[in-house]
Amino acid sequence: MQETYMVTGVTASEIAAGVEVAVSEGRLSPGTMLPPVREVAARTGVSPTTAAAAYRLLRERGVVETAGRRGTRVRPRPASTFREEIRIEVPPGVRDLSKGNPDPRLLPPLHEALAAAARAHEERPAMYGTGDDEELLALAGERLRADGVPAAPLAITSGTLDAVERVLTTYLRPGDAIAVEDPGWTALLDLVAVLGLRPVPMRLDDEGPLPDELARALRIGVRAVVITARAQNPTGAAVSGERAEALRAVLEVYPEVLLIEDDHGSGFVDLPLHPLAEVTKRWILTRSTAKAFGPDLRLALITGDPVTLGRLRGRQRLAAGWVSHLLQRAVAHLWGTGAVDTAAVAAAYGERRDGLVTALAGRGVLAHGRSGLNVWIPVADESTAITRLLARGWACAPGARNRIGTSPALRLTISSLGREEIDLLAGDVAEALRPAAGGRYG
């Protein structure tokens, strides 16, 4: 304990609050050892039980971590935007392929959907206590069952990450281990850090997480597993039928683990869904509309076991309360009228993605992109490759944003690429990677 701070307080809450304030003000730096429980009790004049309760509060808030006999220390401060801040400045005139956005030209017009939502609002204004839109829930249920997802309760959240955060906070505590894909979704990796969870990386190939990697993570004792079904960000991996069977076989041995499946690829990917739902007792599957209808139409349909969905709704009621019924009705209208031709949109993205992967292969450059909006290119050195591509007029995202322990790579978003640009981009990438291209991303 640093001499500039002395433990004070007569209740567990007061002791914990004092330590938390000292950490936030910098009087207790990350890594600082806190005194043993009995010493805190003696200094403050409280019982050891009260002192232990204070430390428990601090652990639950992610302020400290306990390492058995090695004692309790202040945790490294979580950085809510650390990975998001790993970016490059895009000079004027450079083609920006770093953002991960869908092609605006493939998004549906919203005029009719928003007008229909407004008319419904005038007829039946949503007030406090109004439930989720029944039409939207019915459409979501039909689509999920058609994709092989078991019939289960449904919820609506403000996007995938909103649902994942609420579920994780009801099941896990700071210090708990969670299995995540490596490379994986930047926002999820940031969320894991903010919640004080311990990420256990799982390597993957074009068909999803490797079963041996999942098994290793489960043996370590992870309490939750997150798997992307299709359009994995950043590699484009999609879980195949054979891989799904192998992953289910591994998960069946650990029925108590929380399983989270991310199916944000629904609506712009033509590969079939091979769900893992119900292989464990506690599970959710999330289906976002952001990529198919537009990032600003932020809404996700969630299904899962009754206990988990009940916890999710409970947390939601305590915070935002509900997702705007205007957005819900707009999405229901878009789905109900078939505003997006999924096959055509998937084909458009596939032509660009597959075209780039093929053009790179013809130049001796290995790239990955089985589905979705991105192509993942292993490289020897990210900084050198990014600098050389900028000089040739292209901006891409550094793979460091997505990686935990896997090899360097670049992420290129292909959603806005024109046919005439593919060969030019492939040639520039090949030149930028000389004299040596990377290998696998594992």
Write up this protein.
The strands form five sheets. This protein has a seven-stranded mixed β-sheet, with helices on both faces. Strands 1-3-2 form a three-stranded antiparallel β-sheet. Strands 14-17-16 form a three-stranded antiparallel β-sheet, covered by helices on one side. It has helices at residues 12-24, 37-44, 48-60, 111-123, 134-146, 160-171, 186-194, 211-220, 241-251, 290-293, 306-318, 325-336, 342-361, 382-391, 419-433; strands at 33-34, 64-66, 72-74, 95-96, 154-157, 177-181, 198-202, 204-205, 208-209, 224-228, 258-262, 282-288, 300-304, 374-378, 394-395, 397-398, 409-413. It starts with 11 loop residues before the first helix and ends in a 9-residue tail after the last helix. The model is unreliable at 436-442 (pLDDT under 50). The protein is of the alpha/beta class. The chain is built from 15 helices and 17 strands.
